[in-house]
Write a structure and sequence with these properties.
The protein is α/β, with parallel strands linked by helices. The protein has a single domain, classed as Aldolase class I (TIM Barrel). About 45% of the residues lie in helices and about 15% in strands. α11 packs antiparallel against α12. It binds ribose-5-phosphate. Ribose-5-phosphate binds next to β10 and α10.
């Protein structure tokens, strides 16, 4: 691996732990103005200092992230279908590698839909993107998407999808946490990060998910809705960082969450 590729990976996975807290804000590319992401700039801005990388599209990057923000960018480069369609797997490459270079991306990301009607096209896109990424020194993150079929998130399916992605050359894989996740990790020779999925009932549940994923070998999270759909996104990110970087327990992370929440409330209430 050349220096540029290693440098980009090192920037996303800081040496403090070798893990990452990526903030996923790419939902609009197929879901439109997702709740709490309607004004992307307003949501993203205050969170940038508390995450290790931002995962988003070129549209939101150009319109909603200051060019001076010192944050590695994971650029989503696939799309082409919306939630109005039954089959979400009909994706193609929507952003070329030279654009990722122009945007100074640290990595590019695309969804692969293993077992879906457009499995072949999305896997062929992954192969093409990896070849271009190797040329440019830009790592590729494959996202093992499940479309609307959330029940697909079992260890057997995810192990297959992650392994196929790594075999086709993905440098990183984003997947879901599941029962038996350690088996998914064991069968995947490149670092895995986990998505959060739809907003869970509580912050504790999301912290538990992250904790289990890290304990079973994930190299971090690429989480969105469970952070910015929480009424307390900054405390949530600080609690997640403690789990991902410092191996905090869920109880310790919850303590950080509540402490940060109270500190913010006290600052807001303090007279000027
Ligand atoms: C889908 O929109 C993207 O791949 C998201 O980045 C991914 O699902 C992670 O976000 P969340 O934690 O909200 O599931």
């Amino acid at each position: 691996m050349d220096w540029g590729m290693r440098n980009r990976i090192a920037r996303m996975f800081p040496a403090r732990s070798g893990n990452t807290v990526m903030l996923a804000v790419d939902h609009g590319y197929f879901m439109g103005p997702t709740r709490h992401l309607e004004n992307a700039a307003a949501t993203i801005g205050p969170l940038i200092p508390h995450c290790d990388a931002l995962a988003l599209t070129r549209g939101v990057l150009r319109t909603s992230v200051p060019a001076g923000a010192p944050i590695p960018i994971v650029l989503r480069v696939s799309g082409g279908v919306t939630i109005l369609q039954e089959d979400l797997s009909h994706e193609t490459l929507t952003t070329p590698m030279h654009e990722a270079v122009r945007l100074n991306a640290c990595a590019v990301a695309l969804s692969v839909f293993v077992g879906s009607p457009h499995e072949h096209e999305t896997l062929a896109s992954l192969g093409k993107l990896v070849s271009e990424g190797e040329e440019a020194g830009i790592p590729v993150m494959a996202i093992t998407a499940v479309g609307k079929e959330l029940e697909k998130r079992d260890a057997r399916y995810l192990a297959l999808a992650c392994r196929v992605s790594a075999e086709l050359g993905a440098h990183l894989v984003k997947t879901y946490y599941c029962d038996g996740f350690a088996k998914v990790v064991e069968a995947c020779p490149v670092p895995l990060v986990v998505a959060g999925g739809p907003k869970l009932d509580s912050e504790e549940a999301a912290l538990q998910l992250a904790h289990s994923a890290i304990a079973e070998g994930a190299h971090g999270v690429d989480m969105g809705r469970n952070i910015w759909q929480s009424p307390h996104p900054v405390p949530m990110l600080k609690a997640l960082r403690a789990i991902v970087h410092d191996r905090a327990t869920v109880l310790e992370a919850l303590g950080i969450f509540h402490g940060e929440k109270e500190a913010i409330a006290a600052r807001t209430a303090a007279p000027a």
